[in-house]
Write a structure and sequence with these properties.
Elements lengths: L13 H10 L3 H13 L3 H12 L2 E2 H8 L3 H13 L3 E6 L2 E6 L2 H15 L1
Antiparallel strand pairs: 1-3, 2-3
Helix pairs in contact: 4-5
């Protein structure tokens, strides 16, 4: 394991910290961002998103492809929908789900790229 290194002397670089403080988002924005990333912290939700990368599908399709119950899928979809990562539309007796926008795909793609570099 790499050793964490420390400065040999305490020296504050006020000019750099001024720039950082000007760019730093508000605390509530940082909290919301951390909460968003928690949503991506569940492998079932990631698997659902990967399916939705390829096609708009209903809960039945998701349950089949992921070998899970519709109830378990619905629970995860509710969380994804509440966090504006997926959207739904009704067609007759079926409800189809898709990615809310391309940002979702980008977030996952960047994370995957980071892991595989």
């Amino acid at each position: 394991m790499d050793k964490i290194e420390f400065c040999d002397e305490n020296c504050i670089h006020k000019d750099l910290l001024k720039i950082v403080n000007e760019k730093m988002p508000e605390e509530n924005e940082l909290y919301d961002l951390a909460e968003l990333f928690k949503i991506f912290g569940d492998s079932t939700r990631i698997r659902i998103l990967y399916v939705l990368f390829e096609a708009e599908v209903c809960v039945c399709d998701l349950a089949e492809v992921l070998n899970m119950t519709q109830s378990a899928i619905s629970h995860q979809l509710k969380i994804l929908k509440q966090n504006k990562l997926v959207k739904s539309r009704r067609e007759g007796k079926s409800v189809f789900y898709s990615l809310a926008d391309d940002h979702v795909r980008s977030i996952i793609a960047l994370g995957h790229e980071h892991l595989t570099e």
